């Protein structure tokens, strides 16, 4: 290494070393929030009154022609409450609140067509209503009728294949409805 390169390296080091005291406050300010935390913590019971500790998920009523959807939503909701920590599932006679739901309407329509009269993809949508009832008084604590979910599905080569694809779409709707209801219940009050 010649003297010229040695001088360049030393002047380069001096330029950056002289700036280090300016970097410490910036690094300190950036690292403090990461090290100290903001105090936020996730709580699934954030919106629930303390007296609501248990819930009974009643079988959903369903007057549509998709008979199993109400059963699937009921089971998916029970699974959500078992998996979560917000409320404990209980028998109807022991629960603080009762969750009652119903499938209001199912609609099926064409989504994609190869001809004006031949669909290759269809859409199924479900509209649901939910009520949270205080078991002892029968008072409605919360209700909503605005849960609408839709899912597309392909038209199969046979009627049975199409029905299987439609059932897959209905299972997805069931899981979505259960997820929405669970999160609305645990954050409503």
Strand and helix map with partners:
Layout: H1 3-17, H2 20-36, E1 54-57, E2 61-62, H3 69-83, E3 88-89, E4 97-115, E5 118-134, E6 140-154, H4 159-185
Parallel strand pairs: 1-3, 1-4, 2-4
Antiparallel strand pairs: 4-5, 5-6
Helix pairs in contact: 3-4
Structure description:
The protein is of the alpha/beta class and 189 residues long. The chain folds into two domains: 3-36; 54-185, 2-Layer Sandwich (Double Stranded RNA Binding Domain), CATH 3.30.160.150. It is built from four helices and six strands, in the order ααββαββββα. It has helices at residues 3-17, 20-36, 69-83, 159-185, and strands at residues 54-57, 61-62, 88-89, 97-115, 118-134, 140-154. Strands 1, 2, 3, 4, 5 and 6 form a six-stranded mixed beta sheet that branches. β4 (97-115) and β5 (118-134) form a beta hairpin. α3 (69-83) crosses α4. It is flat, with a radius of gyration of 29 Å. The termini are far apart. Residues 37-46 have low confidence and may be disordered.
Number of domains: 2
Mean pLDDT: 83
Q: What is the H/E order?
A: HHEEHEEEEH
Q: What is CATH's topology name of the largest domain?
A: Double Stranded RNA Binding Domain
CATH class of the largest domain: Alpha Beta
Backbone CA Rg: 29 Å
Instruction: Determine the CATH superfamily of the largest domain.
Output: Lipoprotein like domain
Number of helices: 4
Instruction: Write down the overall geometry.
Output: flat
Task: Estimate percent helicity.
Answer: 25-40%
- Percent of residues in β-strands: 25-35%
Measure the end-to-end span: 74 Å
Label the structural class.
Answer: alpha/beta
**CATH 2nd-level architecture of the largest domain:** 2-Layer Sandwich
Low-confidence stretches: 37-46
Number of DSSP-assigned strands: 6
Q: Describe the largest sheet.
A: 6 strands, mixed
| Oligomeric organization of the protein chains | single chain
């Amino acid at each position: 290494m010649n003297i010229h390169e040695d001088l360049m390296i030393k002047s380069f080091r001096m330029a950056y070393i002289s700036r280090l005291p300016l970097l410490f406050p910036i690094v300190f300010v950036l690292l403090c929030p990461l090290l100290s935390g903001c105090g936020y913590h996730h709580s699934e019971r954030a919106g629930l009154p303390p007296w609501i500790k248990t819930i009974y998920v009643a079988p959903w009523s369903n007057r549509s022609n998709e008979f199993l959807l109400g059963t699937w939503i009921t089971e998916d909701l029970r699974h959500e409450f078992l998996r979560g920590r917000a409320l404990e599932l209980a028998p109807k006679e022991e629960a603080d609140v009762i969750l009652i739901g119903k499938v209001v309407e199912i609609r099926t329509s064409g989504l994609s067509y190869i001809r004006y009269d031949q669909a290759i993809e269809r859409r199924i949508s479900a509209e649901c209503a939910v009520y949270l009832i205080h078991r002892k008084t029968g008072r409605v604590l919360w209700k909503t009728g605005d849960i609408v979910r839709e899912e597309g599905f392909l038209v199969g080569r046979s009627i049975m294949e199409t029905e299987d694809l439609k059932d897959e779409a209905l299972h997805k709707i069931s899981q979505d409805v259960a997820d929405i209801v669970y999160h609305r219940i645990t954050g409503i009050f």
